[in-house]
Design goal:
The protein has 278 residues and is an alpha/beta fold. It is 40% helix and 17% strand. Helix 1 crosses helix 2, helix 2 runs parallel beside helix 3 and helix 9 crosses helix 10. It is globular and about 40 Å long. The two termini are 13 Å apart. Bound molecules: 6-hydroxymethylpterin-diphosphate.
Length: 278
């Protein structure tokens, strides 16, 4: 079955086992996974070009690290990091996503012409829903327990899958109530955002249950600590194979989008898996 995602200028589609691949462009000097190598505008743009050449369907640009314990940045600093990058990327004829929790940054990014608002805070900040509703942008609505600074201190759930599912169902309804059509929205279980390894594993085992919510599902596990914990690998750069395995597992369960750093490795693996699928 062909599924659709309305995202700004683009109408994107995916099928079971063949998700769209979103490339991560970190304009953050303190990002956990690339050590801040891409902090300058030129370097971020260059990284985006590599991701695109290697097969990215979407580029996701973030200027504030959500790494557990990462210090917050000011709105001005966030925009100084991502504004010039977005301005260039929107000229490339590929869907551009902005990874931000701030309504003000969302509005500025929409003015520049981005297609997707990716909000790890699920549009709960005051004014965020209104910004989304006043646009034609696609949206990613993610679950997080707590706040980035403290979320990994002691995450607690009675039944993690039920609780994350209920939260996303409620947020989806909040968007629908404001007139944001369901086909504009993806949900995201929020791997590593206020979750232990056991919580993350349980959520990964049940991606398909989230597909049943009716919105597409985005899965973001690339190079994350859960992969490191499963492998005993402290260096994020050495978590590529584990991350690819997780992306394939999510794809097989019907994920709409996988959000990744390692584009070629992921696209190659997905292509081979697809070739063998009936
Ligand atoms: N994970 C991160 C950031 N944004 N957005 C969505 N929708 N889903 C995610 O899982 C997600 C996200 C954190 O990963 P990364 O961008 O690699 O690191 P950092 O935030 O430190 O730049």
């Amino acid at each position: 079955m062909l599924n659709a995602w309305h995202a700004g200028r683009f109408q994107l589609s995916w099928t079971q086992g063949k998700p769209l691949v979103m490339g991560i462009v970190n304009a953050t000097p303190d990002s956990f996974s690339d050590g801040g190598c891409f902090q300058s505008t030129q370097a971020a743009i260059e990284q985006a070009r590599v991701l695109l050449n290697e097969g990215a369907d979407i580029l996701d640009v973030g200027g504030e690290s959500t790494r557990p314990g990462a210090p917050p940045v000011t709105p001005e600093e966030e925009w100084a990091r991502i504004g010039p990058v977005l301005q260039e990327l929107v000229t490339w004829n590929v869907p551009i996503s902005v990874d931000t929790m701030r309504p003000e940054t969302m509005r500025r990014a929409l003015d520049v012409g981005v297609d997707i608002l990716n909000d790890v805070y699920a549009f709960r900040a005051e004014g965020a829903l209104a910004v989304l509703a006043g646009s034609q942008a696609g949206a990613v609505v993610m679950h997080m327990q707590g706040e980035p600074q403290t979320m990994q201190a002691n995450p607690q759930y009675v039944r993690v899958v039920d609780e994350v599912h209920a939260f996303l169902e409620q947020r989806l309804q909040a968007l629908l109530d404001l007139g944001v059509q369901g086909q504009r929205v993806l949900v995201d279980q929020g791997f590593g955002f206020g979750k232990t390894l056991a919580h993350n594993v349980e959520l990964m085992q049940q991606v398909s249950r989230f597909v049943d919510l009716g919105a597409g599902v985005l899965v973001g596990v690339s190079r994350k600590r859960m992969i490191g914990d499963l492998l005993g690998e402290a260096d994020p750069m050495k978590r590529v194979h584990g991350s690819v395995a997780a992306a394939l597992f999510a794809a097989q369960q019907g994920a709409a989008v996988v959000r990744v750093h390692d584009m070629k490795a992921t696209c190659d693996a997905l292509a081979v898996m697809k070739a063998f699928s009936v």
